[in-house]
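Q: what sequence does this backbone want?
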């Protein structure tokens, strides 16, 4: 692989042990992939940092880089963790788990990572068209490529961390123009307005399931940004989709591919049928509702509260859990008590996929198809799919 003079110096330890170790990792993987050079990035986002996912080996890897003097060289953020960052009232984690998780956080922040604690890093720093990034978190990767026209592959946790320290990633895959063109054409017959949650997620699931790893052109009306986030998250979960071109939304939209490798035409009834397929439970069976996968804007809990007040709803008879970015936790403290009394619990900096859930719930409803994909597989929990509005109406107490 061709390296610049500065990169040679990094590799030879002139910038310290941690940078050398990190660049070695990137070069080794880049060479295995066939990359000819590296590219500078403007933002690294590390996923795979929940103690539930990475355990002690992952903790050691991160802590060792920190203790070796590793410091970020570009703007760097990190994903949700396995605990709520202001207390541990809702999700069942042990003192041991909290201590381990906090050690990971101390190492990341010691290296200069921003206290983001979210899977929507594009809300903190919206990427610009054509910018190179090194992001973990599959849903954020797909949003960066599809909604912002920025360039990132789906990087694993260690690689994103190494990219944060070096400011480099291999120039390969979606960083190259020629790999960003759609090859599949998917058409959804016009229905009743723009697709939001959960229907956009169901469309994403179909995309991922049928065309995983490819770039589809999606000819459908999708709500921006929430529908796009839901679609990207589900497609990435079901089939490692890292980029879509969405008609009228993606900045790189140049119209449908002239000679697609495949075509798929869907109708609203296909979406309804797949929704039934994905669900493993009904709304009546759900003990709670989870929303915020990907994380919601911090304004969502406020809007929900406003909705309850305007409709004279005192509380919900079954709880709603709302995952929001960790960076927003402080601002939401003021309303947390009132929300809790009404049956709404904020989960700042975490979500029920990356935290522990076993034993506290058997069946949950959600508007996130990504959550519906992972919960039965990771936590053995059954899932109903519905909109938040439907759930609130069903369980409103006046
Ligand atoms: Fe984010 Fe957790 Fe979903 S990390 S995308 S809320 S699985």
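A:
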């Amino acid at each position: 692989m061709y390296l610049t003079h500065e990169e040679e110096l990094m590799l030879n330890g002139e910038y310290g042990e941690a940078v050398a170790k990190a660049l070695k990792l990137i070069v080794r993987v880049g060479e295995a992939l066939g990359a000819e050079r590296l590219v500078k990035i403007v933002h690294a986002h590390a996923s795979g940092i929940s103690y539930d996912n990475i355990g002690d080996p992952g903790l050691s890897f991160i802590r060792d880089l920190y203790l070796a003097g590793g410091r970020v060289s570009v703007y760097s953020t990190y994903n949700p963790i396995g605990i709520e960052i202001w207390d541990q009232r809702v999700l069942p984690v042990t003192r041991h788990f909290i201590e381990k998780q906090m050690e990971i956080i101390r190492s990341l922040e010691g290296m200069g990572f921003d206290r983001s604690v979210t899977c929507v890093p594009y809300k903190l720093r919206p990427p610009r068209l054509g910018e190179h990034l090194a992001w973990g978190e599959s849903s954020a990767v797909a949003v960066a490529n599809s909604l912002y026209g920025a360039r990132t592959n789906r990087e694993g946790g260690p690689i994103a961390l190494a990219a944060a320290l070096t400011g480099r990633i291999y120039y390969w895959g979606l960083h190259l123009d020629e790999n960003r063109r759609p090859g599949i054409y998917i058409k959804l017959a016009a229905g009743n307005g723009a697709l939001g949650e959960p229907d956009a997620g169901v469309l994403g699931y179909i995309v991922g399931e049928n065309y995983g790893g490819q770039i589809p052109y999606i000819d459908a009306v999708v709500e921006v940004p929430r529908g796009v986030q839901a679609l990207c998250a589900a497609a990435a979960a079901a089939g490692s989709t890292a980029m879509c071109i969405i008609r009228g939304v993606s900045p790189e939209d140049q119209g449908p591919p002239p000679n697609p490798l495949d075509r798929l035409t869907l109708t609203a009834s296909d979406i309804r049928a797949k929704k039934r397929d994905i669900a493993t439970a009904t709304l009546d069976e759900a003990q709670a509702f989870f929303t915020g996968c990907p994380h919601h804007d911090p304004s969502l809990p406020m809007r929900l509260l406003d909705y309850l007040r305007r409709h004279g709803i005192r509380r919900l008879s079954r709880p709603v859990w709302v995952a929001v970015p960790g960076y927003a936790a402080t601002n939401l403290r003021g309303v947390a008590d009132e929300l809790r009394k009404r049956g709404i619990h904020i989960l700042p900096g975490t979500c029920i996929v990356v935290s522990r859930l076993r034993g506290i719930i058997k069946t949950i409803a959600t508007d996130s198809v990504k959550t519906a994909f992972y919960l039965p597989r990771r936590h053995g929990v059954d899932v109903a799919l519905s909109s938040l509005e439907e759930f609130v109406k069903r369980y409103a107490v006046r």
